[in-house]
Each structure stands twice: as C-alpha cells, then as structure tokens.
Predict the structure.
Amino acid sequence: MSPIRVLSVASEIYPIVKTGGLADVAGALPMALKAEGVEMRTLVPGYPGVMQALQAADEVLTLPHLHGGPARVLSGSSAGLDLLVLDAAHLFARPGNPYSSPDGADWPDNGIRFSALGRIAADIGQGSIPAFAPDIVHAHDWQAGLTHAYLQYSGRPRPGTVMTVHNLAFQGQFPRALLEQIGLPSHSFDIDGVEYYGAIGFLKAGLRFADRITTVSPTYAAEIQRPDEGMGLDGLLRGRSDVLSGILNGIDISVWNPATDPQIASPFNADHLGNRAANKVALQRRFGLRDAPEALLLGVISRLSWQKGLDLLLEALPAALGEDIQIAVLGSGDQDLQGRYMAAAEAKPDQIGVSIAYDESLAHLIQAGADALVVPSRFEPCGLTQLCALRYGAVPVVSRVGGLVDTVVDADEPGGASEPATGVKFGPVTAEQLTGALRRANVLFRNKPVWRQLQHNGMAVDVSWRHRASQYAELYRQIVKARQVG
Ligand code: ADP
Ligand code: GLC
C-alpha cells in the first residue's frame, strides 16, 4: 500500500510551541502515524520560537503578498517533526503566546493571522508544493478551520479533508468586513457557507465543509450534538452526525514514563510502587507542605479557567481538608482564580501548596508524587492529564464529562475484566459532588490493598497513541477510498 500523505494544520505543536493539549496531540500524531503508513507534515505559523527551532530549512513557496505583507513557506524539521512553516513576519513575528500579546490581550488581527494559515494550507492541499501533494488536509481547531472554506470556494479539485475539534468553546468569530481582505468570495457569506451568527465563523466553516469531522473522545462527540453542550454549533453537528466521530487522544509514553523519567525524584514502575514515596516527599517539600506520608496528597495540573472547574475545587477544599488531605496545585490562567488559590495556600500552608506557573518539569513530579490527580472539569473534550496520571499511578478523581468518562473507570462501577476500576468519577459537576468524590477517594486511599489495585489497574491501561493513531489512519483510508469511488 502506498503511504497516505497528510498535511496537518495546527497553530501549536509540542515541544516547540504549546499552550494546551492541542500542541501535545499535533506533536505526537505524526510519529504515531508513521507506523501506520501515513506520511504527515505539519503546517505551523512561523512564531519566533518556531523560526528559532527550525533546522535545515528550504524555502518551498514564495508569496510576495499574503494578507498585507510578504511571506514564504519553509520546509524543515525540528524535534523530529517534519514541518512546513508559514514565515510571515507581519503576522507572526511577535512576542507572547500564539494568540495574545504579553499583556494577555488577543491580537486584534487574529482573524487575518489565522486566515493566512488556512489560505496557505489550502494552497498546499491543492499542490502548490509539488514535492508534497497531500491526499488529505487535516485541520485542528478554529485556527485552521478556514482551510476547508478556501478549498471549497477555490473551484479547483481538492484533497480529502478532516476537521478535528479539540475544544468547541473556541470558535474563531470575526467581522464580516474581513471577507474581502482575506480573499473569500461574497457569496461565501451564507448560512451554508462561512456565515455564523452574523460573523465569519472559522470553526463553523471547517465543520461545514470537511469530509469528516472528529473530536477527541466518543462522549464529547455525543455531547456536542446536544443543545446544552453544543455551544451554538449543535444543530450543524447533528446535521453532520453521519461524518462525525470521536477518537480518543493518547499521550507520548516515552515522554511520560515513570521508569525512566529524569524529571522526577525516584523512578518507579508498577512492580515497585514503593519508590513513589520518595516522589511524594519531594513534592511535599517542593510545595512547602508538611512531610506527611499518611496524608492523601492530591495534585492538580491545569489551565486555570472556567472549563476546568477549579473554582469548585476551592469550594470543596474546606470540607475535604478536615480529613488529612493535602493538595499541590500547578496552574496558570484566570487572574481571579490565581489570586484565590494563592490566598488559600497562604491561609493553610501545611495543607495547600500552589504554584502559579507553567512548568513541565514540575508537572512530571506531581504525576509521580501525588496520590490522586483531580480533574473537576465542567466540560472536557478529552483531557490528557488524567492519562498521564493513570500511567504514573496517581489515581484520577474526575468529573463525569467528555473524555474523562471514556478514560477513567470508577472504583464502584468496574466494567468486568476488560475494564477494571482505575479512579473516582463524580457528577453532576458541583462542589457538593466533588466534595463527596474527595471523601470517597480518601476512604479508598485508607484501604491500602484497594488503592494499590486501582494504581495497578491504571498503570496497565494502554494510554499510548498506538491504537488511537490507527483509527486516524483508518479514517484517512476511508476518505481516500470514498473519493476514488466517487
Ligand atoms: P487543555 O488542553 O484543555 O488545557 P489537556 O489536559 O488536554 O487540557 O492538556 C493540557 C496539557 O498541558 C497537558 O499536557 C498538561 O500536562 C499541560 N499543562 C497544563 N497546565 C500546565 C502547567 N501549569 N504546567 C505544566 N503543564 C501544564
Ligand atoms: C483541548 C481540550 C482537551 C483536549 C485537548 C487535546 O484543549 O480542552 O480536553 O485533551 O484539546 O485534544
């Protein structure tokens, strides 16, 4: 079988530029897909960090005018990834994260910036780089969504297309006035085109035109077709349910391997769980918590945002903390939540440790040293931290939403030999239910054989990309086949 060529289009990619799980997925998929006979290259914007990381770059496309300035596409590699980089200084040579300035405000021209990404992705999809003419263009999230509109309105033959939703909360809506500037025809501004609530909807356009739509868990795929979870797009998604499916994320099990992890205090595996104790001590010290082997040490690694439900955890803590529980929180984001967590830590320094930061190395120590990892999300398309937790023997305590439903099996509801219990789930997502879940986790923790079994079961779960990547490969094959027949 000849390899399938896929152009992946993403606004972030681990380990080069990351604000969340999208980067992890975009960074891990190409390697995992290699084993499936898929040759994937990723188109990313040329932010300063990407330009610095790029090695052996060749200019493969020159664009004298792209949305207000000159641009070019460089082909090169970095961290083992085959990249196509959209080098357009007027759009991407800026400090801060991919979407906002260092003071946290979204760049006002994000509509122009990411339409440029979609424009070039479409061109590459239609063969503008002869050495890499893809069979499929796979766009991730709103930033890449317009790709499929450009392909649709080009009037030329197009490759197969996939749109993956990592988070429906971010939809990319921009004023209609941009239409001409970004080179879309006026007739595209239609309910069956890019129009979305009177604006141009980037994600909407991608969902409207992609051959296949995926999201990152089967439960989220079902949730987003409901009016209460569909964030305005449920109608469109229901209408396309025949091409919508959920494929769970995996994690990079070489980056997340407790037996070889250089970023933790003491390596361990399922047969030597006793070695976790040294990581727990290291974690308690790092956060200035009391050395207390008998306390249930909870960990949190998260963006601090409404989605993640961490305000509920703050509400649940007073009741939980009476019960010999400690917590180590690593997160950043919402200013109000940051302040509230720091105040909580100041009030109870023995029990609550907080680090307001983005710190990958500390994230590894938390997974290795915490007894349980708490993920109380209001919605969660997939979630990656609970997958890392399973692999590190940190028992996940999670809300019953999205990918958390699909990846954690509750201690009270094991699904037989094929689905042994791995954690604690709660729902509905309220502070009361979370308090109950923490109490339940504490009771389980005090029963050492039961807890150890939960840890063992979790560590035996396959959280790698292997089976998940094969589902993407199968999807690509189906699209290619359908187009040959059609
Ligand atoms: P989301 O993409 O919604 O933020 P995920 O669970 O899918 O949630 O992915 C989050 C990723 O970012 C994980 O790899 C997690 O370890 C990492 N992460 C989140 N917050 C931090 C932080 N403060 N420090 C280090 N890593 C973090
Ligand atoms: C999003 C979601 C998260 C998911 C990640 C990668 O950021 O919030 O649940 O794991 O994308 O798909």
